[in-house]
Give the backbone structure.
Amino acid sequence: MTNQANAPDLAGKHIVLGLSGGIACYKSAELCRGLIKAGATVQVVMTEAAAQFITPVTMQALSGRPVYSSQWDGREPNGMAHINLSREADAILIAPCSADFIARLVQGRADELLSLMCLARPVDRVPLLVAPAMNREMYAHPATQRNLSQLVQDGATVLGVGTGFQACGETGDGRMLEPDELLEDLIAFFTPKILSGERVLVTAGPTYEAIDPVRGITNLSSGKMGFAIARAAREAGAEVTLVAGPVSLVTPRGVTRIDVKSASNMLSAVAERAQSATIFIATAAVADWRPADPSAQKIKKDGSGQTPQLSFTENTDILATVARSTAAQAGRLFCVGFAAESHDLLENAQAKRLRKQVPLLVGNIGPDTFGHDDNALLLIDAQGSFELPRASKRSLARKLVGEIAARIQAHVPPRQKAAS
Ligand code: CTP
């Protein structure tokens, strides 16, 4: 039985992966593998030029299906590969999409299978996504830029390009995005845009409070839940800023990340951005106290066996501060708190929600979540509480984003959106 809560991101999606000619074809092998791992079925279609860069055998082995490359392919009983392939697809992704292939799409050419199939696709039902890949001069050329904007006007989604070292030896814009970036973009493409127009500010990870230049106090928070929430919010169409304590996680695609160390760094970063946010989600495990008088130099043992005497100062409560702000009190900023408890989750979390004056508080058991890839959440609001049962943090993050979106839609007075 498939576990719905942890279903792969592209479960049930059928992707036609089109390859046109370009050195980036080597990345398409890994992309194909990534699509399959994400639960999609993949049908590869290659141009003759693409087959100069990577063999159809490789793509067949990775996709588990014979590759199509000719409109005269006799395997289709009706002899219409272009119709059959495009009708089955949930999306057509051309990766790499060469400068020449972009021009072909713009012109509506139909003299080889991949162009023909794109032209024959039902535009209202089968989205076309293209991942450009070319030399930086070709990419910057007015003809290519003109063609790309025409392609967008014709209803295609043009994905970004990477910057950096190119196979030709030059450096600049035009590299095809990496397979994991393309995968993230495709998953985001399929996600309903329930947070469109919202500006989401998320705190994540632990904080680090210095004792001296080489030592400090921190905690076991991995930041995974906050990063998953930032990713889910971005996929749902929000503009997302992630204020992260010291963690070594990869920044979710399309998310603006601000790295901070201490609780007071985090407070400054948040205070600056909370004014323009419409949703604040505080997942960070902020240190409650910091050493009152951190030493400028490393504290040394003096051989007497005496231990250093540390005294502490309480850190400002970032969430409570934001929740008391005019924007939050006026209902323009929806605040969500987290509670990491070790016991009596419901009672402690309910009390914390009231103390911090937030409309929604998410409780979890600290030792069960810190460092883990899965978790269970208890949602508490003015109406009561309910549980999101144990699942991957990714899946819980999506559910939580859904819960936040539902509450925002029901919110009165109407909130200011970023678009307004
Ligand atoms: N929080 C914060 N700033 C702090 C302390 C906590 O923004 N200085 C936020 C956390 O990000 C979380 C919520 O407040 O959203 C609750 O954090 P938690 O550590 O569970 O609670 P505390 O307020 O520290 O209370 P206690 O230690 O008594 O459980």
In short: The longest strand covers residues 384-392. The two ends are 45 Å apart (CA to CA).
